[in-house]
Known about the structure:
The complex is a heterodimer. Helices cover about 40% and strands about 25% of the residues of chain A. Chain A is α/β, with parallel strands linked by helices. Chain A has one domain (about 5-85, about 150-244): Rossmann fold (3-Layer(aba) Sandwich). Chain A is globular, with a radius of gyration of 18 Å. Chain B is mainly α.
Amino acid sequence: xxxxxxxxxxxxxxxxxxxxxxxxxxxxxxxxxxxxxxxxxxxxxxxxxxxxxxxxxxxxxxxxxxxxxxxxxxxxxxxxxxxxxxxxxxxxxxxxxxxxxxxxxxxxxxxxxxxxxxxxxxxxxxxxxxxxxxxxxxxxxxxxxxxxxxxxxxxxxxxxxxxxxxxxxxxxxxxxxxxxxxxxxxxxxxxxxxxxxxxxxxxxxxxxxxxxxxxxxxxxxxxxxxxxxxxxxxxxxxxxxxxx
Amino acid sequence: xxxxxxxxxxxxxxxxxxxxxxxxxxxxxxxxxxxxxxxxxxxxxxxxxxxxxxxxxxxxxxxxxxxxxxxxxxxxxxxxxxxxxxxxxxxxxxxxxxxxxxxxxxxxxxxxxxxxxxxxxxxxxxxxxxxxxxxxxxxxxxxxxxxxxxxxxxxxxxxxxxxxxxxxxxxxxxxxxxxxxxxxxxxxxxxxxxxxxxxxxxxxxxxxxxxxxxxxxxxxxxxxxxxxxxxxxxxxxxxxxx
Lengths: 244, 242
């Protein structure tokens, strides 16, 4: 089991950001995390990447517990955070070399060249991160996540802000990576889930409302579009009715 | 930790602010020591760097917070702290790397002042007529002072994600820990513990080291002081895990 989450809870004051979620993820197929804003997707990811601790419940990545064996967990994951934080005054190669040094990778130069190729950063590689467009910055973030060749990839809205051409390239890359790695990504974009995800988890208000393969989910809901399934399960049509 | 160290140092020098800070420090010390008649060595007439070592701590009170203010505050503000915290790095790696980087920059700023030493060495009526032992002791004192102030600066930087607040609180804390205790100990009602209070302040220990004899009590004081604030900084950084 690459990712195992059991009864995870996170409470902020009186508010339960995550309320008893449990799921598993394995290599060989992208797991899509869907949910409305504020549902708990990013919070779950931050817990899985050892950034914040959970209030209760357990999470294991590659068999390591995120609370007690946090260093080991962090050696096995690649994480692309929601807002893609980058050191804007560094150059592309410099930033990758820095991450490479932290992760203690071998053959740094070769690996950086490899990753720059895969993420399509070839002609941008000697520019400062601050001068790159959003799409290229996103690619650098992704490059940083895959640099150490981690077994588990956790991507928080990886195609946010990209134009359609870039989106296609990144999706192809993610799908390719998922063949040998466990990939979890969070998104609002239904087409993305349709395009690359094998398994889907829908979260609403901190609870899992669906956890299935994409095909099974569709057949359970009479082959409706994913968007309609999402709206139905996350109850926003109720709010729409109230507004009208 | 080493990679953090190198990244911080090179990051510091990509911005023009770094050069400005270092130039300003050299300019002010130069003015005080060679131009202003009140404190100028040339008017004072004695071949010694006492004036420099008297004003240097007060300049450090502004210099060091300016160097450390962005260390953690900027990372928190830009979100890059999340980038570091989700890598196989311990909080100590991050903190100590930044501390050593800031200290290295403080030392780099101090380095050009060796020119003053060589100048007086050659300018004296008899060549070499300068108390080298005291100068070495004073430089060591300044380095220890720098490390104490750097730890304070890192602490305040970790408290807020606003660099100006980090700077201001650091200046206040540095000033208080340097000269504040001396002032408090002169309050008449506290005369009984006056000497205890002065020993809590940095000035007392800095003066002691500047004499040129490195007393282990002073060394332990500076190291403990630095360790205390580094520990406090680590606690603040770890607060996200409570």
